[in-house]
């Protein structure tokens, strides 16, 4: 009897401890949204209007810092662009 009371008293505490872990795995990071919704790694920025030598990130970023690290590994900057075309991108901004 005491064991079942002890179990039912502590079971909610164990479940409460696991909830943040489950939630963290389900949250999806969205690097870019709105009109500048295309995540790009770009080498050169021209006044924030155009970026040159752009490519998609090699892996899916899990956070802003991860996005920056992915692009930095290739010597590029993390950017969110409106129109990526032919390794160039127009109207770019920093990721959120």
UniProtKB/TrEMBL annotation:
Gene3D superfamilies (UniProt xref): Hydrophobin (3.20.120.10)
Keywords, in A-Z order: Disulfide bond, Signal
InterPro entries with a match to the protein in the record: Class_II_hydrophobin, Class_II_Hydrophobin_sf
Coiled coil: none
Extent of the signal sequence: 1-16
Keyword flag Metal-binding: no
Pfam families cross-referenced by the UniProt entry: Hydrophobin_2
A GO CC term assigned to this protein in UniProt: extracellular region
PANTHER family membership: HYDROPHOBIN (PTHR42341)
Similarity remark: Belongs to the cerato-ulmin hydrophobin family.
Identification of the protein by name: Fungal hydrophobin
């Amino acid at each position: 009897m005491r064991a079942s009371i002890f179990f039912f008293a502590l079971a909610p505490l164990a479940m409460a401890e696991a909830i943040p872990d489950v939630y963290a795995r389900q949250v999806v990071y969205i690097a870019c949204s709105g009109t500048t919704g295309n995540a790009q790694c770009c080498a050169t920025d021209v006044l924030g209007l155009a970026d040159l030598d752009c490519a998609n990130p090699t892996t899916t970023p899990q956070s802003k810092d991860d996005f920056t690290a992915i692009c930095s590994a290739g010597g590029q900057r993390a950017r969110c662009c409106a129109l990526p075309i032919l390794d160039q991108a127009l109207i770019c901004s920093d990721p959120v």
